[in-house]
Each structure stands twice: as structure tokens, then as C-alpha cells.
Amino acid sequence: MADLKVGELAPDFTANNQNGEAVSLSGFKGKKVILYFYPKDNTPGCNAEACNFRDNYQFFKGKGFEVIGVSTDDEKSHKKFETKFELPFNLIADTEKKIVEAYGVWVEKSMYGKTYMGTSRKTFVIDEEGKISLIVEKVDTKNASQQLLDLM
């Protein structure tokens, strides 16, 4: 499992978004990227986080950021999620779990005494050169945007 640190080059990836379009992190070189990982479309915490980024999307765009969400859900699930909440940013379908593994967010989790593998909620801010400038380990789903602003 990757243990990425601030200052390291962010792992590049290419995967499809909710519209079936291939999206590469390297395609955003020269821009700052908020890359956030979340467990599952259409669940309370993930809805709150996505809507918080949606509500602050124009602000971030104005500051030169692009927002990208990643989960292991498929394109169809992402499309429903995007449509339901009118999300203006890319949602990457990492069904093969290559991106979550590269970023070290595919981890063992526990619920009701059972352990299973799942996506840990984590946010990476990537600078114009493709380097990690900030990692948020404990995301406040309802205030994810403000949390980032407070840490930057």
C-alpha cells in the first residue's frame, strides 16, 4: 500500500469519468487539483461531501483548482450520482481499484464486527507540477471545502 507524503509526485492515472470519457491526472498539469476519495455514491457522508464541493466549485475554479472525485463505483452509478446532485466535476470510476491502491486509500475497514476492504475517505491537493501539497486524512464531509481552505 502506498504511503504518500506531501512533496511527492502524485501517482498519475487514466480512468473513465461518469460520461465514459478518459480522464488523466497528467491532463491537469499546470492546474491545481483537489482529488478526493470517497467510499460510495449516494450514501449520506458521500452525498454531503460531494454537495459541499459542488456548492463551492466556482470558488475553487476561480482560484485555479479542478475538483475530481474518485470511488470504486462504476460509470453508471457515478452518472446517477452526478445527475441527482447536479455535480459539476469529474467523478472517476476506479472499478479495478488501481487508483485507490496507488493512493493508499484501499484499506481494511470494520463495521459491526466484520472486516472488509473499502475506500478510506481522504483528500489530496495536487499542485501545478503534479506534486502533493496537502493531504487531509480526516475529512469533515459537511465542511470539506472550508476544511481545505483552513489548511491551505
Short description:
Helices cover 28% and strands 30% of the residues.
Textual characterization of the structure:
There is one protein chain. The longest helix has 12 residues, at 44-55. The strands form 3 sheets. Strands 5-4-3-8-9 form a 5-stranded mixed sheet. The protein has a two-stranded antiparallel ribbon with strand order 1-2. The chain is of the alpha/beta class and 152 residues long. The protein is built from 5 helices and 9 strands, in the order βββααβαβαββββα. The mean pLDDT is 91. It has a single domain, classed as Glutaredoxin (3-Layer(aba) Sandwich). One of its GO terms (molecular function) is thioredoxin-dependent peroxiredoxin activity. It comes from Pedobacter alpinus. Keywords: Antioxidant, Disulfide bond, Oxidoreductase, Peroxidase, Redox-active center.
Features:
152 residues, five-stranded mixed sheet, two-stranded antiparallel ribbon, 5 helices, globular
